Amino acid sequence: MSEMKEMIVNVVEKIFKDKVDKEKVDVVEEGKWAEDVWQVLQDNEMLAVAVSEENGGAGGDLDDLLNLYRLIGKYAVPIPFVETTFANVLLEKTGLNVTQEKATYAVEEQLNVSIDNGTVSGTIVNVPWARYVDELVVVAAGTSGLELVQVSLKDAAISPNMNLACEPRDTVTLVHAPVQQQTKITNEQLEYFIALESAAKSAAMSGAIDKAYELTVRYTKEREQFGRPIHRFQLVQQHLANLAGEAVITSSAIDNMIASIAQKCLQNEVAYTRIRIEEAAKIVAASAHQVHAAIGVTHEHSLHQYTRRLWSWREEGAGEAYWTKQLANRLMEVEDDSLWGYLTRTEKVFQL
Amino acid sequence: MSEMKEMIVNVVEKIFKDKVDKEKVDVVEEGKWAEDVWQVLQDNEMLAVAVSEENGGAGGDLDDLLNLYRLIGKYAVPIPFVETTFANVLLEKTGLNVTQEKATYAVEEQLNVSIDNGTVSGTIVNVPWARYVDELVVVAAGTSGLELVQVSLKDAAISPNMNLACEPRDTVTLVHAPVQQQTKITNEQLEYFIALESAAKSAAMSGAIDKAYELTVRYTKEREQFGRPIHRFQLVQQHLANLAGEAVITSSAIDNMIASIAQKCLQNEVAYTRIRIEEAAKIVAASAHQVHAAIGVTHEHSLHQYTRRLWSWREEGAGEAYWTKQLANRLMEVEDDSLWGYLTRTEKVFQL
Amino acid sequence: MFSLPTVQFTDEQEQFRLEVRAFLQEHLAKGTFKTKCDSWLSGSDPAFSKLIGEQGWIGLTWPKKYGGQERSTIDRYILTEEFLAVGAPVAAHWFADRQTGPLLMRFGTEEQREFFLPKIVKGECYFGIGLSEPNSGSDLASVKTRAEKVDGGWIINGSKTWTSNAHDAHYAVTLIRTEPLGEKKHDGLSQLIIDLHAEGVTIVPIKYLTGEHHFNEVFFDNVFVPDNMVVGTLGNGWKQGLAELAFERSGPERILSTFPLLDELIAGLKRQGDAAGMKEASKVLSRLWGLRNLSIGVAKVLEEGGEVAIPAALVKSIGTKFEQSIPEITRLLVRTYPRLEAERRIDRFMAESTLHAPGFTIRGGTSEVLYGMVAKGVVGQ
Amino acid sequence: MFSLPTVQFTDEQEQFRLEVRAFLQEHLAKGTFKTKCDSWLSGSDPAFSKLIGEQGWIGLTWPKKYGGQERSTIDRYILTEEFLAVGAPVAAHWFADRQTGPLLMRFGTEEQREFFLPKIVKGECYFGIGLSEPNSGSDLASVKTRAEKVDGGWIINGSKTWTSNAHDAHYAVTLIRTEPLGEKKHDGLSQLIIDLHAEGVTIVPIKYLTGEHHFNEVFFDNVFVPDNMVVGTLGNGWKQGLAELAFERSGPERILSTFPLLDELIAGLKRQGDAAGMKEASKVLSRLWGLRNLSIGVAKVLEEGGEVAIPAALVKSIGTKFEQSIPEITRLLVRTYPRLEAERRIDRFMAESTLHAPGFTIRGGTSEVLYGMVAKGVVGQ
């Protein structure tokens, strides 16, 4: 990371350390809105980090944003930061105007949303934070292909729902909702957005993995059993080694994925990362809970704020099933005669 | 087991304990024939345990035989005991005459062996012990369906080969070899024979698992590291618990499978057992070797005589791929509305 | 090696299974209960427990003079399997049926049996288990709760934690220090039955990570327990408690806690005609079958009074890993969106299984403790 | 958390990779060597090592004055990857290149460097490692082999075991007790280079479970070692030895030992058009990618002189499990009949991988030892 990028990450991490603690996450999970967290990010102009300067942003890159998403996972940050910033990425990448409002998005292969005569109709499930935000950026089927559309959620019926981490995942019903802005996109663009969104979730998951690992290391130092700190027991050491391994591998995977995205060459890196992180999420959640034992499954302890996010996020966006299929298709089609040649190729694929 | 059955098992176990040690297995793996082991089994009439009394056998059942096959694995017995006795099961179950000679068999779904005008032609790979035995019982394609055929291996060209455990697995080429005896069999009978053969391999594997487990327990008591017996280390205890678990589950699986076969109801038990035992073989071989560390991968130690058999046998006959496909097909077709109903059903399927 | 018997169900047993199943299906259809994963811990429903009591299905194996049916352990095994397979809410009477009854049968006084057992079988008297204490963790013998002898009984001070369903229960069987801590911490402990509605008892909920209330911390502040509520021999509480463990560790509840999800997975794969997925799922059945043989074998030996501490610990350690694996396998074979309030059963079962899974390998003896126990056992053989 | 750098290969590095690959493919086609799994341990071929030496590919990173190329650690990483991916027989010069050279560069005398390094880079001088002793197991510091000071050198008595390729090697770097055992067993140990053809040295093969000869026990009976064969500081042998370990544990040889089998698996699935199988296999690639990033990141930090003991231990413990998993995954996706002499490559690679796999998590530090090391490291951070 450049110094500039590191500074941004440090500023935001400091904000989260100050503003987001266990109790904050608890009250948001119970249905409150964390205005103070939102406000301080807005005051620090962190909501437009990746928006270009001519659009009033800080002119940062996708990689700044992805590094910030790690912090969302690491502090279980209970506001639609990913959603708002990613909605703006979608808007800006397709030449639309960015929004200053709170926003969310729905980008999937199969959406039952259609656009007709300047209005949008359809029902979308699991829209993050819909009830709290103003704008929705969504991919809709137009009469002659895909369109990226922005609609106001004031024009939508919203039925609240949530994921395992009690994050809002609402059902949004649009009936002839007026389009705010729209533009055609290609199938390749949609695929690219799906990949970016999957990368964003991976980054957030990696942050939650880091935190679960850290909490566990700390616990093994504090907790004693049979007269000695539990990190002295070989079976606990095995858990710690497994956790450290998953943490360092996922963290390095994210670094490498971000580097690939920054170079606009995200051949298979998003796929590898997401698949590996879902596997890591399983191992880390299981090991962290096993070491924490009974105390870790109480609501009072903070561990579950991270493990429940891991269990939720791994099911959101393009995940293992999507990516193994993509990889399998590519492997079937490559003309290299050897796997090694394919793996070490550095050809660039997405050039958007 | 009845007392009679237990007695047979005890007699044979005593023979193997006396006659089959590490050195014996070593020399056979190097290409010798263990005449003394063969002879003592013959003298004790153990080669015809499951042959009916009217055919000159002891009138035992399949379950006696399967329990003896466990011992073949447990002592890495290097003679074609399974092959000869199972060839006779095939002959007797189809109404043919049993053979007094050493024999082997080839029972698979896809065999390139055909029968025509009283002669048999084709090439069969991986025929166990072919070079040492006299008779081959094989499924061949006749002009109007499947036939079970006996040919003399004197009439065959045999090219020696071996599995990972250095057991003979030869290529047998038959060119118009004269049929000794033959009979038509149905597809259902072939399926039943394939299942029985798979069950036989499972039984043998379970014996090798027991031995690998026993060797490991013994080693953890004898071996010291950092000043104490290694069974005192938690990570070794974890290995021991895993090994004990696999050993007891596979042993109990074999008991239950044998009970089902004895009741001529082998609905899914052969499939479940074989799949589970292949999994156990993996876990047991890995854990046993890990505990034994360097000493266990030397030729001098006996552990590999059991682990190499596990790695070899799991690839022989109808294995995981065959049985998961069978189970999946059955699950797709059952009319029970619930899995639990299906699992607890006791309907009998094979009634041969 | 341990050798366990194989069990072939009799026709009567098959019949009993179908009878239980029909009853449960009827009540499921009626809406008396809703299928739930891990229902034996998280599905407390006193009304349902009373219904089960009316069927004679609590204390099934107990003597008739206490209201039991004198049926076999295998019958009880079948009954339990049917409850769990359909995820019935049996948590309220669970511990009284599984642990308290057998304990009283083995160590209790006739007075205790006559007083408690008939109430338990009716599904009207529930028990909590007061074993763990704050900070005791796996070191269960580090008991600090103490009893002081007074005239006619004992005065209890201290606290117990992780007591499942204490808030629904009437009594708790507790392990209490009745003699001062000596050289061996396992000595001087006794089992006392404490009335959870007695003066000085405070029950404080411990919220599960879902926010649900299953566990409690129970505080004792000068609680009087009469002498006739001591179970078995004073000072022998640790050994008496150990004897229960094989029962606690080897039952179908260590294998089937997430079975409703597996059922739903197979149904989904069948609907989708997903042959490759079904092949993967069939491996799970093979594991289930292996564990079930083992668990039933242990039940049979227990009935005959045999020693099965090691295989029971293996059922627990391997079975609970199996239960945990179901949601992880499911999510790789079908797309789910886990949600506790989901309409799709598979989403709801995924949520219940995923959120409850961490506890499986902790409650009733962590896997780590069990490995050590098994290893010591097999090395000593 | 540890933070490791990401490495983007330069165009020159990509070019170098292709150059190495073309060379290896040419010799593979010519029959100079045959692809083999675990070839860095079991593929000793002095003729091939000489060929590699001629290319300038031994001691690639070493100073030119010793015959090296002064290339970067990343270049060496690429070279090693290419060797392993194609299973080239690099075992003969392996330890000299990986361990002895760096050791001498760091601790050796100028005389030692000038004497040994130019021979090593030519592929004509091989080293064994004399670390383990009979019964030492994971307790590597329990060294009994002792050196007695005599005029002009040392007299060595004792034995070393598990010395790979000692029968092909010219020298061994050994860890020897040069001072009597004191309070701390790690003190008083020194590293000495022993000429394996010296009088009093006996090399006895230890047959691998396949019957193959890779390992040896090496006996020293009053072997004279001149003073100038002491490496580094007397009594500092343990610490010097530890410094090598991060190099030894974090390379691609902890990830790619069974790569030829994976390659063959993917090719087989492609031929069969098995989409479901390919989906499974693609997960393996994801794991490989994760490990490779980690391993390259460690190589980069090592080059910069940074501290990477913990991530290096993680590459070893997770990477070797990965290597072991390849045959187990393969057999579930395609039918194989493993045989060392098989004609079908996949059968042969299965045999090699399966039979060698047990050693992966034992050699160079067992997984159990590594877990403890990592845990101590992360708790101390």
UniProtKB/TrEMBL annotation, chains A, B:
Claim: Oxidoreductase is one of the keywords in the record: yes
Recorded GO MF terms: acyl-CoA dehydrogenase activity; flavin adenine dinucleotide binding
Domain spans labelled Acyl-CoA dehydrogenase/oxidase N-terminal: 3-78
Cofactor(s) named in the record: FAD
SUPFAM superfamilies named among the record's database cross-references: Acyl-CoA dehydrogenase C-terminal domain-like, Acyl-CoA dehydrogenase NM domain-like
Top-rank taxon, per record: Bacteria
UniProt entry tagged with the keyword Oxidoreductase: yes
Protein name: Acyl-CoA dehydrogenase
Species for this entry: Peribacillus asahii
Classification of source organism: Bacteria, Bacillati, Bacillota, Bacilli, Bacillales
UniProtKB/TrEMBL annotation, chains C, D:
Keywords: FAD, Flavoprotein, Oxidoreductase
GO molecular function terms listed in the Swiss-Prot or TrEMBL record: acyl-CoA dehydrogenase activity; flavin adenine dinucleotide binding
Pfam short name (any one): Acyl-CoA_dh_M
PROSITE patterns listed in its UniProt record: ACYL_COA_DH_1 (PS00072)
Gene3D superfamilies: Acyl-CoA dehydrogenase/oxidase, N-terminal domain (1.10.540.10), Butyryl-CoA Dehydrogenase, subunit A, domain 2 (2.40.110.10)
Gene Ontology CC: plasma membrane
Annotated Acyl-CoA dehydrogenase/oxidase N-terminal domain residues: 10-124
Residue intervals of the Acyl-CoA oxidase/dehydrogenase middle domain: 129-223
Cofactor(s) required for function per UniProt: FAD
Protein name: Acyl-CoA dehydrogenase
Organism of derivation: Peribacillus asahii
